[in-house]
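Hello,

Our lab assistant flagged a job as stuck in the queue for most of the afternoon. It eventually completed. Since we weren't sure the result was trustworthy after the delay, we are filing this so someone can double-check. Below is the sequence as submitted and the structure that was eventually returned. Let us know if re-running is recommended.
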Amino acid sequence: MIAYKGKRGVVYRIKFTDADGRQIMETIGGDRREAEATLHERLRRVEREAYRKPRAVTFADAFAGWFDETSARKQWRDSTRRQYRIVEARLIPRFGEVKLTALRRADVSAYVNERLTEHAPATVSRDLTVLHSIFEWAIANELFDQNPAGGVPHPRTPSRRGHALRPVDVQVLARSFADSQDRAVFLTLVLTGIRRNELRGLRWRNVDLIENVLKVEDSKTEMGVRAIAIPPTLAEELWQHRRGSNFSAHDERVFCHPKTGGPLDPADFRDALDWAFKTAGLDKPEGFRPFHDLRVTAITNDALAGANPIAIMTKAGHTNMATTKIYLKLAGVVFRDEAEQLERRLLGLSTQLSTHLAPHGPISSEAVRLEKAESTQAEG
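-- returned structure --
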């Protein structure tokens, strides 16, 4: 270990020979104990793990290697590739030419703080997740020794409950669209709960109007690839929409640009929905996000209609029940039927008789009154 006196004080460097027999010199910093610990760790790894100093590569090189290898291994869809290219456009200007081994946790933390002045917390959190994944890939490929994104806290993302329309609002809005395709889009969203990109990716081959099944093939997750039953009203709407469409071939889009057959423009549907709210005489909820909140409407009302949570999770294409629980909570689902089924199984009684069960005989009306009084007092 060597101590150098510089403009900012003493800096410690460590010197050792790696498994390839190369003389390695690393600058650690001004903490002697950290330098000693690092040297000990390097020597141990040389002996036990045949440690070699990582090759000098830039962050841009690492991103390219990570992207190519991970996209092939996980078989990313085109939509996923596009999303990561958007993240790349934010990361490369900041880190692209920096040597990977020069990056520190402070650099990642500074990036997070800078981006929060320009982007939403959810966007910055996504960037941090990608950085963490790239660094882990680099460590696995012996390009790096540590993950500088590890320990950097994700920015807190404000929870957005979403807006679930009431059944009466859905019924009025469905009659208020000027264009038949816009009405079909609206009904598909509120009756199936599919995501925006899933809806835009639908082809007529995905819609079976004989068996009344809609197949989602292009989704952001594996769980998102699913089949959904089409209710009769929507089946009829889709049948009429296909009959009137200029793009009704097997591989053409269900919902598309009316002149080119290209992808549906989300802005056009937003405008159509605004018109429907105005025509129906309804006030659009503040901050209403058409595609997201119509999905919220579908899933929440599914829960209120008594659908099984597993069925809701499967239909929505959620990866796990944790996401579905958000919608169940939003709907205020208390699983009353399940509670009564458990009572019948364990106690052998119907709901009407349950208040008469007690360890030593039936509960008197006075006991019930006192219990309610105690509960009220406790809540107060």
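-- support follow-up --
The delay was a queue issue, not a problem with the job. The result is valid. The two ends are 68 Å apart (CA to CA). The chain has 15 helices and six strands.
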